[in-house]
Amino acid sequence: MTPTLPRTVRAVDTAQLLGLAQEAAMHSFSQRLPVDWLRVHLAADATHYLFPTLVQRLTHRPETPLQWRCRQLLTVTTGEQIWGLLDVLPDTFDKIPETLDTPSKKDIVNRIDQAVTVREWMERTDADAGS
Prior knowledge:
This protein is α+β, with helices and mostly antiparallel strands and 131 residues long. The chain is built from five helices and five strands; from the N terminus they run βααβββααβα. A five-stranded mixed β-sheet has the order 1-2-3-4-5. A hairpin with a 5-residue loop joins β3 (67-75) and β4. The longest helix has 13 residues, at 14-26.
């Protein structure tokens, strides 16, 4: 039986997010940003957010555990918020404390919907650096 996808948003600090990315890399999850990239580009003292949107089961890789595919709202060193994807183990996600009220969660989901993607941000900042 597939676990029920939680309809919530969880807040994590940069150190926690780096740990989640490291765990995703250890399991070779397909949706994750490289830990080294995150270390360079994330604002060190920021809060980031995870919103589970999909139950991910890799039938072609049965050794890979089931995961929640989360949209993540990241705050980068420029102060901007961008969004990307991160696959997280359900047990790991469940251990992140529930700290946000309902209006805050709705606001975060709206900000994710309005934010540029990691790729768009990288392309723009690379273009700005070349100017």
